[in-house]
Each structure stands twice: as C-alpha cells, then as structure tokens.
Amino acid sequence: MALSLAQPEISEAAEVMRTTGWADYALIDSGGGRKLERYGRYEVVRPEPQCLWTPRLPPERWTAADAVFDPSDEEDAGRWRFKGAIPPETWPLGWGPIKFHGRFTAFRHLAFFPEQAANWAWLQTQVQAAAQAGGDPPRVLNLFGYTGVASLVMAAAGAAVTHVDASKKAVAWARQNAELSGLNDRPVRWITEDARKYVQREVRRGSTYEGIILDPPKYGRGPDGQVWRLFEDLPELAGLCARLLSENAKFLVLNAYAERISGAALAGLLAEKLDGRGGRIEWGELALTEERGDRAIGMSFFARWSSEGRFA
Ligand SMILES: C[S@@+](CC[C@H](N)C(=O)[O-])C[C@H]1O[C@@H](n2cnc3c(N)ncnc32)[C@H](O)[C@@H]1O
User: Which CATH number does the domain housing residue 209 bear?
Assistant: First the structure.
C-alpha cells in the first residue's frame, strides 16, 4: 500500500497552458497557414500550417508587417524578407524583469519561443516557493537551454542554475541575455556540452538538483557530433534526470515540439521514471492565443512533475 501511495498521480485531462502575450509579444492575427506576431518593435509574418482558418484582419494589415519568413523545402529553414531597412542584428525584448535579444534567425524563429512564457511563469512560482523555504538556493538544471530565458527566470527567482546546450553560439547568446537582464552576478553555470553526456557525468558524480527542465529537439547534435534523437534517446535521458533529483526535489518538466509526441505520452514516461516519488504529473500543450480573439495555436507538448501533493 505504501508503494502505491508513492506513485505520482497523473492528471486525467490535458491542460492547455495559454500564452496571451505581454508588452513585448502578441499573436496579432492568424489564418491562411500563417501567423502575424509582434516582437517588440517588429511585426512579423511566419508560416503556421495549422492555422486552417481565415485571418480576421484585412490583408493590408498583414502586408504592412516589417518581416516575412519565406520557407524553403528544408524543415524550418528559409529566409527573411524585410519591408524597410534591414533591422539590426538584435533588439531588446523583455518578459517581466528578464531581458533578452530578439534576432531574425535562419530557422524561422526569433531566438526565443513565446509560448514558453507559460512554462516560465510556472517555473518562477516553483523556484520562488523552494527559495522561500530557506537554506541554500535551490539547484536547477536547464537542458537544451538555448538562449537561456528559462535559466534567467529561474535565476531571478532565486535558483542556482546550470544551463546546458550543445551550441557555443546559443550559450554565448544566453550569456548576453544574462548581461542584458543585469543577472551576471547570479549563480548560473553556462555549459556547452552534449546534454546526455553532461547528465551521465552528473549521475556518476552523485550530483543532485531540486528542479530540472528539458526541452529536447526532435533531432540534434552535441558539440562533438553526438547524435540526439528524441524518440530513441528521451527514455534513457528522462531516467537519468530522475536519478539527479534530490530527496527534496520540487519539479521535473519535459517539453517537446515533435509532431508525433503528445502530452499524455510524456506524462507516461515521467510516471515510469518517477515511480516511488509521489507528487503529481500534469500534462498537455502550450498554446499561443490571439490578442483579440478566442483562437489558439497549439505549439508544443509538456508533462511536468511536482512533488507537491496529490490531486484533490
Ligand atoms: C528546441 S531548442 C530549446 C529551446 C529552449 N528550451 C527555449 O525555450 O528557449 C533546442 C536546443 O537544443 C540544443 N541541442 C541540440 N542537440 C543537443 C545536444 N545533443 N545536447 C545539448 N543541447 C542540444 C540546440 O543547440 C538548441 O539550442
């Protein structure tokens, strides 16, 4: 009986974590396979095949956008077309106290993922609660951390952060974001390494963390060419992450963008790896909601374990 009490409880229904925008981001309109968004001072049009409906704003509103991403045949690749002068390489954006650079990347995104704001808010609450409990700052690990917004949100909330990404360039951009946010003095370790290799080493060392977030791509490469494949490699990595959780661990968040994954599947994986830890697992999708409407676009899937209690 004691054993069954220690199994995490999985929520019955999917949760949609909606991001409705903030001062520096909005989903202005969508439809016709595209979305019109605002990133600070720039309005941007990007392909979004799932927007099967018709835009609500008139065509001239869309053609006035500052930048349009024209996709090529290759996945996520393509090029930006600018309406007026070529914009600067970076421009400042913020989410609450966290500042970061927007960039027109060659992979159709703007150097951060706005729908992740729902995760940032949840992580912020978790870390603040753990930090307020007193003692040393909670240690958190952000794997596949890219430009570091989640790392900075957690650092500002009082965590000692380890940020890992395979790309030297991404880690350099993350450090620039830390500087822009005025968080250089916070305990953040910036590590350029293969996520799996790093985690394997941490398990051997007996390191532990109070919180872990991982947002692995479908396919990626470590700095020494190590191949990462979501469907083949996630089960082992999730198991290793579970071993890195301290006795007082508060959370483990899994996020994924792959088409054939689901929140329910991520929850099943977490439940298996966290058997014996109690707590609860919520799962679902992250969505962007139009600023003036009820329409939402599902962007990624998540499952998250928290040590706090079972469902009522
Ligand atoms: C989907 S992005 C993560 C987005 C990030 N969580 C965020 O919200 O900004 C994927 C990241 O994984 C990194 N990556 C790919 N393969 C990797 C590997 N084997 N080890 C570590 N990082 C890897 C890429 O460099 C990229 O920054």
Answer: 3.40.50.150
pLDDT digits (tens, 9 = 90+) for 144-189: 999 999 999 999 999 999 999 999 999 999 999 999 999 999 999 9
Same domain, 145 and 39: no
**256 CA from centroid of ligand 1 (Å):** 11
CB atoms near residue 97 (< 10 Å) = 12
Q: Are residues 291 and 149 in the same domain?
A: yes
Do 276 and 245 share a structural domain? yes
Residue 308: predicted pLDDT? 86
- The total number of structural domains in the chain stands at 2
Q: Is residue 47 part of a domain?
A: yes
| Residue identifier of the C-alpha nearest atom 13 of ligand 1 | 144
Q: What is the pLDDT of residues 15-42, one digit of tens each?
A: 999 999 999 999 999 999 999 999 999 9
Structural domain range at position 141: 2-19+112-306
The pTM of the full predicted model, rounded to 2 decimals, is 0.95
Distance CA(123)–CA(109), nearest Å, equals: 23
Question: Which ranges in the chain belong to alpha helices (H)?
Answer: 2-5, 59-63, 117-132, 149-156, 168-180, 195-205, 230-244, 263-273
> Hey, what are 253's tokens?
């968040």
Q: Is the CB of 42 under 6 A from ligand 1?
A: no
- 153 lies in the same domain as 268: yes
- Domain shared by 140 and 45, yes or no: no
Residue of 144, 149, 218, 228 to test ligand 1 pocket, by largest number of atoms within 8 Å of CB: 144
Question: Which protein residue's CA is at the shortest distance from atom 27 of ligand 1?
Answer: 146
DSSP 138: P
